[in-house]
Amino acid sequence: MTTHAPHASHTVTLPASLDEAVAALTAMPTAVPVAGGTDLMAAVNAGHLRPAALVGLNRISEMRGWQYLDGHALLGAGLTLARMGRPDFAALIPGLAAAARAAGPPQIRNAGTLGGNIVTSAPTGDTLPVLAALEATVIIAGPGGSRREIPVSHLLAGREMLNPGELVGFVRVPLLHAPQTFLKATGRTGPGRATASVALVLDPARRGVRCAVGAVAAMPLRPLEAEQWVASLIDWDGERGLVPEALRAFGDYVAAACIPDPAPPEDGSEPATLPPAALHLRRTVAALARRALGRALS
């Protein structure tokens, strides 16, 4: 379905299926796909973007639900943040539900989508560190009914990109059936953009801890050495608890890995120190990581 607004210079196409949406994007290379439009409309209102055509995705029902598949959840990219925050979804993937509930005021959560968070790749996107910690993958729909699957982290890091005519259709998330936590710090009281966020999940089957830090860099950061170190301290067959000193050390380890000290000067002069704002951010990340692990193990 295509509608032309009177006296408007752009076209709005409303496909009913994922393949129809891909076909529309292939036929109109300058078209921009839109679902919730929370980031798109902000860019348009700020004068940063003037799309020649829009491909609306809200009528594609296959992208707005989820299903179980071989130990994974297959999530439609059109799932709204509000829908992911509900109790039934929280029972499935608690970390992602917590991030969705923290994503902003109701009007943002009602419109914003999982796929939009991924494709926009804003550093402060709340679902992104959770997806990185869960090692989720995206299923990309392309022309001619083609499908390909890549890690979310590859897309966020720019290691792999969407080709012309491609859309993120689904997100595949492993179901770990283990504690998951998401915590964020904002610059003000109440919902707001994260100044730092931490997602942490336990993986008892592989006796691992996975942690991702958001908002402090262009993409979520995984402190792999800190993950491996703390996983080696956990009694996976027992209580799984850690003493406060170990939790504090883990937080410091994560923070130092994500916000490292400046490299020493090559001329042997006095080493530089982090500015006060960076030191404050490092302390914030350390506190979030410590609390996230403590809650997951409690």
From TrEMBL:
Molecular function terms, GO-annotated: FAD binding; oxidoreductase activity
Q: Which InterPro entries does the protein's record reference? A: CO_DH_flav_C_dom_sf (IPR036683), Diverse_Substr_Oxidored (IPR051312), FAD-bd_PCMH (IPR016166), FAD-bd_PCMH-like_sf (IPR036318), FAD-bd_PCMH_sub1 (IPR016167), FAD-bd_PCMH_sub2 (IPR016169), Mopterin_DH_FAD-bd (IPR002346)
Which keywords has UniProt assigned to this entry? FAD, Flavoprotein, Oxidoreductase
Q: Which residues form the FAD-binding PCMH-type domain?
A: 4-178
Superkingdom is Bacteria
Q: Which residues form a coiled coil?
A: none
In Swiss-Prot or TrEMBL terms, this protein is called FAD binding domain-containing protein
